[in-house]
């Protein structure tokens, strides 16, 4: 259940007598109130994407459903009304960016994966503009494998080996090149470029042997600087074509990094200290280790062994004058000694035990010199909402509290211990996994077995606290015979919103911590929090009244805004501003600037690639103004931190899936539902002068009946003057261009020429708003061969006008008082295609869909029910139904069902 915070509040349950019964501390009360105000004023957002599959192939669609919640309320967010979803390649470059409309914190869409993409480890990143203020650590950022068999001729397999030469690290890569059938490319020349941290450090040539292999070696003399990268290999194929492959180099050594983390933050003399250990190999994955803890005299004081993904813990009671270290033994038999964190002579230890399914037990331990010296406060908060706060005397060296988990929300709880001066002296994270805090999403009428192409007709039933609830759910159905699940490594709505969004860094196998709710899993999760603890809320900012750096405001609608100024930069109030667009029909609105010269066209609705013209005039209708648009800079792409999910041999890892999907894509191609890109032979182009090289002419730049260049426009005041009498068959009447053949060609009257300005259609009477000195070229299209591509719009002829500064920029000025602008609009939402095999109908074409069914928006009614139906494919196997969802209070749903198709 969702709990409201009470700040300041006293929730003392099961606490021993060391705690006082009442909290009366005005300065501390003020601090907690400050936290509450901070949280309400600067709420944050979390986002999760439910994907239809865990991996994909070139030719696939990536279908997704977005869930965005407000951390302050825990409910679906109404802060932002737009979400950015990006597909990022291995070069950390954005291949596709979608802008999705958000309504009630949800949205959905898809990426098409064209055959112009190559195989690799891609990322899907999602965020709102408001989330950018908190940093990229909070973004949804998932690495996915995308294979390529359907449009691929060269397949590689790479093995790396490592060795040391003095202080340098030697990397040896053996790369095999083969065709789609596994036959090696022998005696083929390969050019390679080894790049580390995006710097080219080794280039060379090699020739494949009889097995299609080459070997590359590199000596890394700066291992601390160059830790990972890639090999770009270009192979010359027998038909004189070339293929380039980018092969990840995840690490330059097999070194293992081992770190130690004292519970609460510090090791303190004379107190039993739990210390967590985390060992990570150079590929970013946990590495199992074992070892001894010894003091400076070589005396063994404890032993330890990692229990899950290189993580574990042990206890040490540091003694005065002693220094401690760990002798770590690795799986290859080698050993290394690491120093433990420095021991403090005085301080506090905050110990938290959350292994009990019913309660969290908190212990405060203090060194002897601190007994009776100060008053302590303990606060437990989640996402800035305080759920537990109390005061404790320091009359005893150990103080214990017990907090029922049912009174805490699911997710990461941050415990902070404050001293008498209200400064934090120890912190600890704990995780609460309240299964009663979730929606139970069940299905009715689901049979254990079905036939191929049989209709699956089921009902979704959603309940919370044994009562039906309304919610929005997404459902993905796949055949595990082709899409093999990896349950421990899945990203889902629970791992995203309860764990990953509050814990920075890479989390290996995140769903492992949600598959079982037992003591072993709880201990593994506790080790994760101790070794990877990180805070959304920084108490020092609250204490010092430091507000967050707000650079990006929430997007509540699509808008075009800016400022009208004089050429000297002085704001011009009461200026008339007009907004034009001809995309999808002509559109025009006007407004006036305010006292600061600002204007705002708000609550617009337009799709991506829509182009606008913004026109400004002074209060006296003068054109001599500057228009400065409000343009939010794009989000930079940070380096991929999910190093453990990177696969060196992507196609090989997805071999079974690629084989099945290849047949599916070939079938779609036969039906004309999927197009291949044509690969042309390489030809050398000799540049020919093109007087309209930057134009948007659909026939191709320069393919026109007549071209007027910038030199021809130098002595004209208006474009009407420039065109009049210069082009045969073109006349100007009242500033509108016509072809003489169209003056009386229509019963409805004269047909003007269509004007296309920097790729955007504008009305014919707009011609003289364009200053001749700002024009690069005018292409005149008169003949049917040149106008046909413009359809009915080109019936009266076309003028393609290209400005000197209008070549494809998002916003570009081409004349005084006028600016073109192509802002990011909403992505058009497509519907997942699901065939219907009704009785009496026959369809002999094979149905090989890898995603059997996808529905991003199943809404349950007041009885908590929603009907779902779809048809199975032609492939037998175990079908997996994954349901995720949310209700208006922010309760989450995640359920998986299976059935057999025979």
From TrEMBL:
Gene3D superfamilies: 2.60.40.1930, TonB-dependent receptor, plug domain. The keyword Signal applies. Residues 1-23 form the signal peptide. The lineage of its organism: Bacteria, Pseudomonadati, Bacteroidota, Sphingobacteriia, Sphingobacteriales. The keyword Flavoprotein does not apply. This is TonB-dependent outer membrane receptor, SusC/RagA subfamily, signature region. Residues 711-798 form the TonB-dependent receptor plug domain. It comes from Pedobacter africanus. InterPro entries: CarboxyPept-like_regulatory, Invasin/intimin_cell_adhesion, Plug_dom, Plug_dom_sf.
């Amino acid at each position: 259940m969702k709990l409201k915070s009470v700040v300041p509040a006293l929730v003392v349950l099961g606490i021993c007598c060391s705690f006082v019964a009442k909290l009366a501390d005005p300065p501390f009360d003020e601090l907690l109130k400050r936290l509450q105000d901070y949280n309400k004023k600067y709420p944050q957002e979390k986002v999760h994407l439910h994907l239809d599959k865990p991996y994909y192939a070139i030719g696939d669609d990536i279908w997704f459903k977005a869930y965005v919640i407000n951390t302050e309320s825990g409910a679906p967010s109404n802060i932002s009304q737009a979400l950015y979803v990006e597909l990022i390649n291995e070069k950390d470059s954005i291949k596709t960016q979608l802008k999705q409309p958000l309504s009630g914190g949800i949205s959905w869409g898809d990426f098409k994966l064209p055959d112009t993409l190559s195989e690799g480890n891609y990322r899907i990143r999602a965020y709102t503009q408001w989330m950018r203020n908190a940093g990229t650590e909070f973004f949804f950022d998932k690495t996915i494998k995308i294979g390529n068999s359907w449009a691929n001729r060269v397949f590689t397999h790479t093995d790396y080996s490592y060795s040391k030469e003095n202080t340098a690290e030697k990397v040896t890569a053996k790369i095999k090149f083969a065709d789609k059938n596994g036959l090696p490319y022998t005696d083929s020349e390969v050019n390679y470029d080894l790049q580390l941290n995006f710097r080219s450090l080794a280039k060379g040539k090699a020739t494949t042997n009889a097995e299609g292999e080459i070997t590359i070696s590199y000596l890394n003399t700066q291992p601390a600087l160059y830790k990972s990268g890639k090999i770009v290999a270009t192979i010359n194929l027998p038909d004189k074509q070339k293929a380039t492959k980018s092969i990840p180099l995840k690490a330059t050594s097999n070194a293992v990094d081992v770190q130690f983390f004292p519970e609460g933050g510090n090791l303190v003399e004379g107190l039993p200290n739990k210390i967590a250990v985390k060992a990570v190999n150079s590929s970013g994955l946990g590495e199992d280790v074992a070892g001894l803890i010894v003091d400076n005299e070589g005396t063994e004081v404890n032993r330890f062994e990692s229990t899950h993904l290189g993580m574990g813990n042990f206890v040490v009671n540091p003694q005065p004058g002693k220094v401690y270290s760990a002798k770590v033994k690795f799986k290859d038999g080698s050993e290394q000694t690491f120093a433990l964190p420095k021991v403090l002579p005085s301080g506090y230890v905050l110990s938290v035990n959350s292994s009990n399914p019913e309660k969290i037990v908190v212990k405060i331990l203090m060194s002897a010199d601190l007994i009776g010296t100060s008053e302590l406060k303990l606060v437990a908060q989640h996402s800035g909402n305080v759920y537990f706060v109390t005061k404790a005397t320091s009359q005893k060296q150990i103080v214990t509290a017990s907090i029922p988990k049912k009174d805490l929300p699911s997710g990461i709880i941050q415990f902070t211990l404050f001293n008498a001066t209200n400064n934090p002296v120890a912190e600890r994270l704990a995780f609460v996994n309240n299964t009663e805090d979730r929606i139970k999403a069940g299905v009715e009428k689901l049979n254990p077995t079905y036939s191929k192409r049989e209709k699956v007709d089921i009902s979704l039933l959603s309940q919370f606290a044994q009562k039906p609830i309304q919610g929005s759910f997404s459902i993905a159905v796949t055949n595990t015979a082709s899409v093999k699940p990896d349950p421990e490594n899945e990203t889902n709505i629970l791992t995203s919103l309860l764990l990953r969004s509050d814990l920075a860094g890479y989390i290996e196998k995140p769903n492992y911590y949600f598959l079982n709710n037992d003591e072993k899993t709880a201990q593994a999760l506790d080790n994760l929090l101790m070794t990877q603890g990180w805070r959304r809320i920084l108490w020092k900012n609250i204490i010092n009244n430091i507000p967050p750096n707000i650079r990006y405001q929430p997007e509540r609608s699509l808008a075009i805004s800016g400022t009208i100024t004089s050429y000297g930069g002085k704001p011009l109030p009461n200026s008339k501003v007009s907004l034009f667009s001809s995309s999808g029909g002509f559109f025009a609105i006007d407004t006036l600037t305010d006292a600061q010269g600002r204007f705002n066209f708000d609550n617009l609705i337009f799709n991506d690639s829509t182009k606008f013209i913004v026109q400004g005039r002074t209060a006296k209708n003068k054109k001599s103004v500057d228009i400065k648009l409000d343009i939010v800079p794009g989000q930079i792409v940070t380096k991929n931190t999910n190093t453990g999910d990177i696969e060196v041999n992507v196609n090989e890892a997805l071999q079974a899936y690629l084989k099945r999907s290849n047949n599916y894509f070939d079938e779609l191609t036969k039906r004309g539902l999927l197009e291949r890109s044509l690969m042309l032979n390489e030809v050398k182009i000799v540049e020919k002068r093109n007087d309209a090289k930057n134009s948007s002419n659909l026939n191709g730049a320069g393919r026109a009946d007549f071209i007027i260049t910038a030199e021809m426009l130098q002595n004209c005041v208006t474009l009407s003057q420039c065109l009049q009498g210069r082009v045969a068959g073109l006349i100007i009447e009242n500033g509108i261009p016509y072809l003489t053949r169209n003056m009386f060609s229509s019963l409805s009257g004269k047909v003007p020429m269509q004007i296309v300005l920097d790729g955007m259609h504008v009305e014919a009477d707009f011609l003289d708003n364009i200053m001749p000195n700002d024009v690069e070229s005018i292409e005149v299209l008169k003949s049917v061969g040149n106008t046909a591509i413009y359809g009915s719009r080109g019936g009266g002829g076309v003028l393609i006008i290209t400005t000197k500064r209008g070549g494809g920029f998002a916003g570009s000025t081409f004349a005084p008082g006028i600016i073109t602008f192509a802002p990011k609009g909403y992505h058009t939402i497509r519907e997942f295609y699901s065939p219907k095999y009704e009785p009496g109908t026959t369809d002999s074409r094979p149905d090989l869909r890898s995603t059997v069914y996808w529905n991003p928006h199943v809404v349950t009614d007041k009885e908590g029910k929603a009907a779902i139906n779809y048809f199975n494919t032609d492939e037998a196997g175990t079908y997996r139904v994954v349901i995720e969802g949310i209700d208006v209070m922010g309760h989450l749903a995640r359920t998986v069902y299976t059935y057999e198709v025979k």
